[in-house]
Design brief:
By secondary structure, the chain is of the alpha/beta class. About 45% of the residues lie in helices and about 20% in strands. The protein has 10 helices and 9 strands. The strands form 2 sheets. A 7-stranded mixed β-sheet has the order 4-3-2-1-7-8-9, with helices on both faces. Helix 4 crosses helix 6. The longest helix has 11 residues. It is globular. The structure holds magnesium ion and zinc ion (ZN).
């Protein structure tokens, strides 16, 4: 079994990127977010433009992302049970790899395969102006744009016959949710899964995931 996981707002108790953007750029990130929700701009282009608004030094920006991150309740036990069942967790995120890795080591979380973005700083000491270099595991998609689709990442990572659980909350998680066997969703993704009639369950926290998975397996 493959657990295909979004990071921000899914494995964390709140949206760290949004909180940190608000702190550093005020409301300037919000109109861009609305474009992504309405599918007028790709979520990848939006996130890259939002990161480009930030003028804070690199360490300050990354440090704020790490400081805001609180792992979702039940996450370590969920990962331990996945391992016991022979499954594998893969995080596929447009978020910043350095920040996610720092949270994992700070909180001594169980190992996961991580595919996330590099923060590219064009200024001195890797500082602003910033842009994102998305993980190479992302692929092309008319909805997400070139080399920005998590659905393509799912197809690349999935082994033949392997059941896939997708966990997400945002617009970028819809493409993998369309290909999942079962999706755990909150926020915007939950609305989109409901609209499209996908097989999904609400993700309250990670403590109840396995009972939902077992009930779903028993009915297949
Ligand atoms: Mg998210
Ligand atoms: Zn896509």
């Amino acid at each position: 079994m493959l657990a295909f996981l979004d990071y921000d707002g899914t494995m964390t108790t709140h949206e760290c990127n949004e909180i940190v953007l608000q702190r550093f750029v005020g409301d300037a990130w919000r109109p861009l977010e609305a474009e992504a929700h309405a599918d007028r701009m790709s979520h990848a282009a939006v996130f890259d433009r939002q990161i480009g608004l930030i003028r804070a030094p690199r360490e300050e920006f990354l440090g704020a992302l790490v400081a805001e991150a609180e792992p979702a309740p039940g996450l370590p036990a969920f990962l331990a049970e996945l391992d016991a069942r022979g499954g594998r967790p893969v995080i596929v995120s447009a978020g910043l790899r350095e920040a996610i890795a720092a949270v994992w080591s700070r909180d001594k979380l169980p190992p996961v395969e991580l595919h996330a973005s590099e923060l590219v700083g064009g200024g001195p000491q890797g500082g602003p102006p910033y842009r994102l270099a998305f993980s190479g595991v992302l692929g092309d998609c008319p909805r997400c744009g070139p080399r920005a689709c998590k659905g393509a990442a799912l197809r690349a990572l999935r082994r033949p016959g392997e059941p896939v659980l997708v966990f997400g909350d945002g617009a970028s998680d819809l493409c993998p949710a369309r290909e999942a066997d079962l999706t755990f969703a909150r926020g915007h993704l939950a609305e989109r899964c409901a609209d499209e009639g996908l097989e999904w369950r609400p993700l309250a926290d990670f403590a109840t995931v396995w009972s939902d998975v077992d009930a779903w397996t028993a009915r297949r």
